[in-house]
Amino acid sequence: MRQLDHFIVGGASAPAARTHKIWNPSTGEVQAEVPLGDAALLDRAVATAKKVQPEWAATNPQRRARVMFEFKRLVEANKQELAELLASEHGKVVDDAHGDVQRGLEVIEYACGIPQALKGEYSQGAGPGIDVYSMRQPLGIGAGITPFNFPAMIPMWMFGMAIAVGNAFILKPSERDPSVPIRLAELFVEAGAPEGLLQVVHGDKEMVDAILDHEDIAAVSFVGSSDIAHYVYKRGVAAGKRVQAMGGAKNHGIVMPDADLDQVVGDLAGAAFGSAGERCMALPVVVPVGEDTADRLREKLIPAINALRIGVSTDPDAHYGPVVTPEHKARIEQWIDTAEQEGAEVVIDGRGFTLQGHEKGFFVGPTLLDRVTTDMESYREEIFGPVLQIVRAKDFEDAVRLPSEHQYGNGVAIFTRNGHAAREFAHRVNVGMVGINVPIPVPVSYHSFGGWKRSGFGDTDQYGQEGLKFWTKAKKVTQRWPDGGGDGSNAFVIPTMG
User: The whole model's pTM is what?
Assistant: First the structure.
């Protein structure tokens, strides 16, 4: 069995008092152990980061960009290895794991342009003989706490921007699938980054609390469940940190009567069941508008869902693989139980699914629930599995209201041929990311990612210029160079544009 270690300068100083097992979700066997660190171990990582960060911040942006370029090249060169390693611990199929790596790489590509993105502003003659300019400077040390469902993408979203602008970074990945984050950190050193600039510490709540409380960590980025996101936000802000905390989701897919249902069914199958539904941008709720639309959609969904192939993560023909742990499999099946008890119609039942030859794997069959209503707990909460719920809307107004009134506001999609309806929906819906005939509306790297309501705490999104803003602080300089004349009569006057 593999024994993992923290990726910090000097490694772990002693054997870990506590460890966490890493499953192979396809076989149901434990494949590795990861140590769970404590505040003392974090102190060592922070001490190293403090030593290396000032020199890195003083390195000109172009040289920092060269490291990002080389890191991008190395990740691309090792992409197959990374995808296979990711799939072996998470359970998503290898092709899907490639997408996990690629969407992270796109933010690294954006970070390669950091000299341009970091340029400040300059105003000549803002007042009599006065010029004003601004610059953005790094915070010092940043930290990221990342979830199990995207062990490559989300770490790269965070550390790519944070390091490119001049910070050191400490990553605490999920203890369920930490091997890829370690490998990324190794590649970052190979790319030319100074040792200690990017470090990886493992742990559970004890390590999270240590990060949130550490006085030398200036900013923390978090992605995970909403309850923990809220906790992280409150504790981090109370400790004087800048915090962005992305929470859960219950994304809705609105299907208008004029939508191309064949296209919609294909999009829904991928968005609801891809990665076994373990995506914060999955589409677990479909909202057909009108009973006729609902009946026609259901009729087309049933054969499409029944045709899905579930397999081990290395199966090239599988649409999706197992879920991440046995506990998560049990939790998903419990949610299906709950929905049924609440009165939902179980059209396709994925409970009790086993894969021949891999009976111990953590597989959940695709599940379709109809007649789901807004008062059901199974609708209000995030299931995070291969479960698609049909919530029938009476009309367009009802369809706008459903995602707008939900506690989560991460993403939403509308499927329609009507431009006016799409425009009106995008404008009115109370959700942070909107797709129009796009089932998973994750913005490209030069925009920003972030949800509303309980899907996002804090006021700054991930990556793009928003990410640059989060990982830097703005300095504004007002300057005047006297020519030796004058009587000093304006010395006590605030400079103005007069």
Answer: 0.95
